[in-house]
Amino acid sequence: MLAARSVWACRASSKSDTIHMAQGLQSLDPAVLDRLSSLELVARSVVDGFMSGGHRSGRLGSSVEFAQHRPYVLGDELRRVDWKVYARNDRLVVKQFVEETELACHILVDRSESMVYGSQTWTKYDYARWCAASLAHLVLLQGDVAGLVLFDEAAHDKIAPKSGAGQRASIWNTLERSAAGGGTKIGTVLEWIAPKLRQKGKGVVCVFSDFYDDPAQIGAGLRRLAAGGHDLILFQVVDPRELDFHFDGLLRLDGLEGAGRVKVDPRALRDAYLTEVKKHEEALAREARALRAEVVQLRTDRGVEVVLSAWLAARTARIRSGGRGR
């Protein structure tokens, strides 16, 4: 059964399914970062910042500048149509004007003991670190600011949001030397950090975790963050064996976070386990949907560059077309 404090590591799991991936943050394939750097991380919500950057703000005034074109849709005011573009290309587009501000991206990474599980040659925590490092690189490459918090039952290794190459090195080095261990209190950590982020203005909060905690408590923490106007993105890092529970023969399950040890027949447990997994994911999705938070599932058997590039491209396209970020 999947419960908030009962997470099992299947030590008898197969390690035959592998993909090509760099094993350390410093050796992350440059081609991965190059692909990510060609995309923009665009916040769904109106973002306040500290200095001129590349993201939209809700403040209108004398400094309003042209930002981009978007396709004309029924109901748009005709005075906003760019008739010069129409004359050249026979295409109706609307001009968008915004005051540009800097994006603040707060990256939170779960380092609790449940993140040490992995049926690959890497763990969920390894995968979360790769994704977090790639996202930080992208944000900083855009000229925006990024910060980092590692957490389990409490927040650790806090790096205040800044910009520049030095900040990237600081984030990468912190992720590189960190190790997973300890219990899980995701909701408590989110509630603790919310008032601190409120002082820095609206931004994007990206949480990398398996979210194996009580969805109601997670929702309570998310509500505190949403009250500050932040754009919330939940990256759920999961191992494929946690999703399909596909094992043959008897298994010894070593409980993480003090859950004990037991031997089981996986065939007898599979249906009940999958039912609990589905209930947990549905409950997490409801909490996120109520707050317009985005949930992105990251399977550890898929390439970092593939999942992040696909997500960023789809998210950017939705936002620029006037849709929501999720």
Description of the molecule:
This protein is an alpha/beta fold and 326 residues long. It folds into two domains: 245 residues, von Willebrand factor, type A domain (Rossmann fold), CATH 3.40.50.410; 46 residues, no CATH class. 36% of the residues lie in helices and 23% in strands. The protein contains nine helices and twelve strands. The strands form three sheets. The chain has a six-stranded mixed β-sheet with strand order 7-6-5-8-9-12, sandwiched between helices. It has a three-stranded antiparallel β-sheet with strand order 1-10-11. Strands 2-4-3 form a three-stranded antiparallel β-sheet. Helix 5 runs parallel beside helix 6. It starts with 6 loop residues before the first strand and ends in a 6-residue tail after the last helix. The N terminus is likely disordered.
Secondary structure topology:
Elements: E1 7-10, H1 30-36, E2 55-57, E3 65-71, H2 83-89, E4 93-101, E5 104-110, H3 124-141, E6 145-151, E7 155-162, H4 165-177, H5 186-198, E8 204-209, H6 215-227, E9 231-238, H7 240-244, E10 251-256, E11 261-264, H8 266-290, E12 294-299, H9 304-320
Helix pairs in contact: 1-9, 3-4, 5-6, 6-8
Overall average pLDDT: 75
What is the radius of gyration computed over CA atoms, rounded to a whole number of angstroms?
A: 21 Å
Q: Provide the spatial order of strands within the biggest beta sheet.
A: 7-6-5-8-9-12
Overall number of strands: 12
Poorly predicted runs are 1-24, 38-54, 58-63
| Helix and strand composition category | alpha/beta
Report the total helices.
Answer: 9
CATH class of the largest domain: Alpha Beta
> How many domains make up the coordinates?
2
